[in-house]
Each structure stands twice: as C-alpha cells, then as structure tokens.
Target: Murein endopeptidase. Metallo peptidase. MEROPS family M74
Amino acid sequence: MGFRHLIGAALAVVCMAGTASAEKLAKQYFGAQRDGSAQKAAAYGSYAKGCAAGLVQMPETGPTWQSMRLSRNRNWGHPDLIDFSVKLSRVAVKQGWKGLYFGDFSQPRGGPMLTGHRSHQLGLDADIWMNPVGRVNLNRNQRENISAISMRRAGGAFVNDKWTRAHHEILKAAASDPRVARIFVFPGAKVQMCKDEKARSKRKRAWLRKIRPWWGHHYHFHVRLSCPKGSRGCVDQAPPPPGDGCADAQQWVNNILNPPPPPKNPPKATAKKRGELRLADLPKACVGVLNSK
Ligand SMILES: [Zn+2]
Model:
C-alpha cells in the first residue's frame, strides 16, 4: 500500500468515527420530547427498543392516586395503561389505602430514556410504589422528595414486616387483568404470594404465572401490559413459562440464601456491551412519532 493510500485509509477511519459520534442517540431525541404525539395511540417495536404514538399523560393527582417525581415527565402511557392504573388505584382503596403512588411510566413519546430504565419504551410499562398510601394530597415538592418504601429483607429472599395482605391483593388484582402480560417483583414477594394463595386449583392460581421474580423491584412493582389489540408493529415478549412459577421463585430464593459455588470453568465474557440505540435501530414509525405535532 502506497503512502497516499495510507493517508486515505487513515482519513476514512477518522471521518467514520467523526460521523458516528456526531450522530444523536435515540434517547436524546426522545428524552427531549415534552408532549405526546397528536396521533392515534400505538406502540412500535419492543419494550426495550421502540416508541409510542398518542400517549396520554396520567393526571398528576386523582381521587385515588398521585404521580410521583413530576419533574421527570415520565407519567405518560397508552390509554389502556392509564385506564388500568386508575382501576388498580381503586382496588387499593378497597384494601384500606387512600390509593396508589405512581412512579415512572414512559416519556411523552416513549423511546429510550436518558437515564434509568431500558424498558418503559412503549407506554405499556408502569412502576407502582409499594407504599401503603395514607394520603393523596402531597404537593409537588413532597412528591419529589418522599421515599418509596422497601418491602424486602435478606437480600430479597423474604418480605419484611412492611408487607401486608393488601400488597398481595393489589398485585393479584393487577395480574388478573387480562391486559397485563407480567409483573416484576423481588423473589421473596413472589414466594410469599405463592404461600398466601390458598387456592390449589390451576385456574385459581393462574394469576401467579404473571408474577415474575426479578432483581430490584422491592420499592415498587412493575406492571407490563401486552401489546394492545390491533397494535400492529408492537412486539410482545414471549409469555412466561406455563405453571404458577412458584418452584422457580423458591429456587431463586434458595440461591440468594445459599449462593451456588461459581462454575469451575466460567464461560468467557462473550456478552457484547449493549450499544446505545440510534434512531435507525428503532422501527421506522418512530421517526414519524418524533416528527408529528
Ligand atoms: Zn420499571
């Protein structure tokens, strides 16, 4: 290779690097949105790689709920998610609470976020605080500052003494809604719910299948709706394995209490570092969502 070729190759590399770093990330576009798009409600893509049209803002305060951390502007959802959340807050009232505190839903047009979650991109995910709500008249400032309450002990192997039957009933009602695909909660909570659900028939325990043990999720539980009916371009996650999932949750707990020895020949770290999403990685419809009024 002659000298000129070398220079040319070097320049090409520099230029490619230049364009790559200059290209805005998808989260920068979506994180800058202030309002939902004036489009029919629709989700495009998958929970961790997509966006959403026609999202609706959860009213900041209602008779039986409050949205928390308003400064984040992440209280936007598909109309089904808003409807689901309002109804669930009434279940909480039946359990003796004043309602529910809602954490992050989605950004106004969904999409990747500048900080935090990987999912919550379709307007179909909601974080709901575990606090037994005693008042729904917190001011803006209080909603920035009060803390969510953890329900776990022993690293998530068990619930602590803050956990109540009301939690069981609220999560059960959530999981029983046919629109819900799964609910993420720490393993100790799932095992507790498995024990407290006295019904033995498969049909009556079916809701437990949707309660999925997961890391974190002891300050809040995370509800994920399935793709709404007729929402073409929305990609559902594979359903949870059949059965109530109680044995798997117990196994997870056992592993927290008695961690298995590390494998003798650990597999080489082959997992690629997850690249940052660019607009071109999202469904084409997401450009339309960004450009819409
Ligand atoms: Zn979440």
